[in-house]
Amino acid sequence: MGAEVAEPGTVRPGGRTARVRTAVLQAAGDTLAERGFAHLDLADIARRAEVGKTTVYRRWGTVTGLVADLLTDMAEQSLPRTESGSLLGDLKANARLVRRTLADPRQGALFKAVIAAATCEAKTAEALHRFYEIRVKEWAPCVQQAIDRGEVPKETDTHEVIRAVSAPLYYRLLTSRDPLDEAAADRAAEAAATAARAGVYVRSEAGLG
């Protein structure tokens, strides 16, 4: 469920609208990372982005609307999956991508802020769920290819395998001061691959007659 991205908006074509969106999303992401969701203010974001306040209010309307657009932009610009030819290789690539994102001072702080906000803001929670849905769908074909190669059982839930890779890394980010190093990423991938091969992620209804 990798999420490493370019700076918001930089992949998009030119034009004033694109430049405004880039500047505003950059300012929103920086503020989230530095001060958290509670300190997001549209007027302050407009000043920071050097964009007219009216433009920001008209386009995004609310702080939650702005955060939702930021997450949409991040999901769209996240790096695509890599395919190594083996389940473990693919899951390690995914885990290392997630680790790089969460270990990055700006990105890690940004995700902490959004996750915290999602616990009490329904629209932010919806946007966060949409972000992860996009990223899981991007990487799920790696597991399907493993099914096709006969590496894992036929009825394996491809999405659950991908979620299992990143879950330990998010847990470490949110609950521990232990470093998010590459060894932790590789362990998460190895654990998910081993469990998948053992049939842990086979859909429960697959066994019903």
UniProtKB/TrEMBL annotation:
The protein's superkingdom reads: Bacteria
What InterPro entries does the record tag this protein with?
A: Homeodomain-like_sf (IPR009057), HTH-type_TetR-like_transc_reg (IPR050109), HTH_TetR (IPR001647), Tet_transcr_reg_TetR-rel_C_sf (IPR036271), TetR_C (IPR011075)
Q: Where is the HTH tetR-type domain?
A: 18-78
User: Which residue ranges does the Swiss-Prot or TrEMBL entry mark as DNA-binding?
Assistant: 41-60
Keyword Transcription regulation recorded? yes
Q: Where is the signal peptide?
A: none
Sorted keywords for this record are: DNA-binding, Transcription, Transcription regulation
Record's protein name:
TetR/AcrR family transcriptional regulator
